[in-house]
Write a structure and sequence with these properties.
Length: about 280
């Protein structure tokens, strides 16, 4: 059972429940509306699907409206080690890994998020760029975990490594966030998720890696609690939970690459890579 946002052949954008190969419409106008209340309300909408879609559909990013995407950093030991390796200020990352307060940062408004098959980008002013395959929490307006999806938190390692204060430029730009292909409801999800990444270049595998959310250093509800501590999200929020797969500094994404992130139960998010050319 997966919740999907999709476009019909007539151009209508809807939210539906993909179950046993059937796509059933849900009685809400979008993901933001689904998340606008508490978990009980969300579950009641999902539990009462309507008629089935009979024609072809195009899967879209499972986020819309005023829902924001945020992200957590340095939540896996591998991520901590990679940040220390790249940074001119390595102790910053070592300290946050062990701290009570997590690193949280804004990633994208809903309108800027790329969906399945859409292009992700690397910056023209960066020299080392990587995909960051992550499990993302889909949170209700009350801060409860309604479900899980895949996030590609595309990042510039060279910009962040130069100075931690450059984090927003390393993380937030056109094509730096992709979500999809679906949301698995929290009440139908496994306790842990396996995550795999494959980058293909010119028909060959350029990089591959695997991890598991069992290696997360922080409980997922704790990350959500910190995000909602001093912020309201009337349309819910998506919180990406950090990466446990980081290529070495000798690897960088290149235009023409294809990035695929798979999490069993959610699906596979695949995006081609382009280079932004808007540097002034």
């Amino acid at each position: 059972m997966r919740i999907v946002r999709y476009r019909t052949a007539d151009g209508d954008v809807r939210v539906g429940l993909d179950t046993d190969g059937r796509l059933l419409r849900l009685a809400c106008p979008g993901i933001a509306a689904l998340l606008a209340g508490d978990l009980e309300r969300c579950r009641s909408i999902v539990a009462a699907p309507g008629e089935a879609e009979t024609g072809p559909v195009e899967l879209l990013a499972p986020v819309d409206g005023a829902t924001e995407v945020w992200a957590a950093g340095v939540t896996y030991l591998r991520s901590r080690d990679a940040r220390i390796e790249e940074s001119h200020e390595p102790d910053v990352y070592d300290r946050v890994y062990a701290a009570e307060r997590p690193e949280l940062f804004f990633k994208s408004p809903a309108w800027r998020v790329r969906g399945p098959g859409e292009t992700i980008s690397v910056r023209a002013d960066s020299t080392v760029d990587v995909p960051e395959p992550e499990l993302a929490l889909v949170l209700t307006a009350t801060g409860e975990i309604a479900g899980y999806t895949i996030c590609d938190d595309v990042s510039s390692r060279s910009i962040e490594g130069d100075n931690p204060l450059y984090l927003p430029q390393a993380k937030i730009y056109n094509g730096s966030c992709a979500l999809g292909p679906a949301i698995v409801p929290s009440w139908a999800a496994p306790g842990t998720f396996g995550i795999s990444l494959t980058v293909r270049r010119a028909g060959a595998v350029a990089f591959t890696g695997t991890t598991s959310t069992a290696q997360l250093a922080r409980p997922l509800p704790d990350l959500a609690r910190w995000l909602y501590a001093e912020l309201d999200f009337p349309a819910g929020a998506v919180l990406s939970t950090g990466t446990g797969i980081v290529p070495g500094l000798d690897f960088t994404l290149a235009p023409g690459d294809e990035v695929s992130i798979e999490i069993p139960g959610i699906g596979t998010l695949t995006n081609p890579v382009v280079r932004n050319e808007r540097l002034c």
